[in-house]
Amino acid sequence: MNAEIKVTPMRNQDSIEITVEQELVPYGTSLSFSDTESAASHPLGSDLFNIPGVESVWIMGKDIMVTKEEKARWAILQSRVLETVKTHCG
Questions:
Q1: d(CA 27, CA 1)
Q2: CA distance 41 to 43
Q3: Does residue 1 carry a pLDDT above 60?
Q4: Contact criterion met (CB below 8 Å) for 43 and 84
Q5: Which of 29, 35, 67, 77 could form a cystine bridge with 15, CB 3.0-4.6 A?
Q6: For residues 5 and 21, what is the distance between their CA atoms, to the nearest angstrom?
Q7: Handedness of CA 47, 50, 51, 57 (dihedral sign)
Q8: Could you tell me the pTM of the whole model?
Q9: pLDDT tens-digit readout, 5-64
Q10: 75: exposed, middle or buried (Cβ count in 10 Å: 0-12, 13-18, 19+)
């Protein structure tokens, strides 16, 4: 069974929001990762930072916001980001 994943572009062209079916963190809490070291203890955050070009990750409820480095291209990154999310949430 494939989990439904929705991708929403953000005002900031370097960010996308990914919404999944399951709660990733308890309601009212969030996780923010700005680098590999800060995400090291979180499996999804850590795996997203293993993708070259990912600059930051923010997780709240069912939403994941991923921001890429300015020179990176979503055409290359987005499929890898989504595959990583599916691995953890599917």
A1: 25
A2: 6
A3: no
A4: no
A5: 67
A6: 7
A7: positive
A8: 0.93
A9: 999 999 999 999 999 999 999 988 999 999 999 999 999 999 999 999 999 999 999 999
A10: exposed
